Amino acid sequence: MAADASKSGKLVLYSGAVEATEMLGAALGCSVRVGDLAGLVGPLGAGKTVLVRGLARALGVQGRVASPSFIVARFHPGPVPLVHADAYRLESGRELVEAGLDEWLAQAVVAVEWADRVAEVLPDDRLTVAMSVASGGRRIDIYASGPRAGAIIQRLQEVLLHGDIGHRDLKFAS
Fold first, then answer.
1. Residues 6+ apart with CB under 8 A from 110
2. What pairing do the DSSP bridges indicate for beta strands 37-41 and 127-134?
3. Which end of the chain has the lower number of beta carbons within 10 A, N or C?
4. At 8, which helix (H) or strand (E)?
5. Quick check: 161 pLDDT over 80?
6. Which positions ≥6 away from 20 have C-beta within 8 Å?
7. Phi-psi region of 47 (alpha: psi -120 to 50; beta: other; left: phi over 0)
8. Rounded to whole angstroms, how far apart are CA atoms 156 and 174?
9. CA–CA dist 5, 27 (Å, integer)
10. What DSSP string runs through 78-128?
């Protein structure tokens, strides 16, 4: 069972399979709305793009979701649009702002890979998804930095505990 996210503002999960990480992304997609930002951090291969693939699917995005490493961001239209950005190659957060961060937030859910590199320009109220390689899978720490993000964590916890989205290889930390 998970800790009470409404008090902690944090969820910690373990994913034992790529499919479980994608399912977590789908659960997140059921919990966000236009204007929400998820900052993803973690080393290469931690599963950031896999999580965004699940997020996109839950938002109703059609087509392939791939890392936007070489183009800064991809706009994915859908019932709830998604902007998938990657800050790995950016020199500063200013480049993300110049690329359209404020406009993206006005019209889409925004997922930023390598968010720690541009944290100074991201909204104060955001979700941070910290992913790391752990024994046999991935440890995923999800933090809220404000009331809107805290509400996302509450909805996410409800979806994971009571929704139809789940995977045998996705577990709450004890």
1. 36, 37, 38, 82, 83, 85, 101, 104
2. parallel
3. N
4. helix 5-8
5. yes
6. 137, 167, 168, 169, 170
7. left
8. 17
9. 15
10. SSS-EEEEE-TT-SSHHHHHHHTHHHHHHHSEEEEETGGGSGGGS-SS-EE
Buried b / exposed e over 158-167, threshold 16 CB at 10 Å, is ebbeeeebbb
Least confident of 32-41, 61-70, 109-118, 134-143: 61-70
Structure tokens at 151: 């509400």
Q: How far is the C-alpha of 173 from the C-alpha of 44, rounded, in Å?
A: 23
Q: Are 127 and 39 in contact (CB under 8 A)?
A: yes
The confidence score (pLDDT) of residue 174 equals 63
* Reported confidence tier of residue 8, pLDDT bands at 50, 70, 90: low
Q: Can you read off the two tokens belonging to residue 62?
A: 């059609």
Domains of the chain: 5-172 (3.40.50.300)
Alpha-carbon distance of 159 to 174, in angstroms, equals: 18
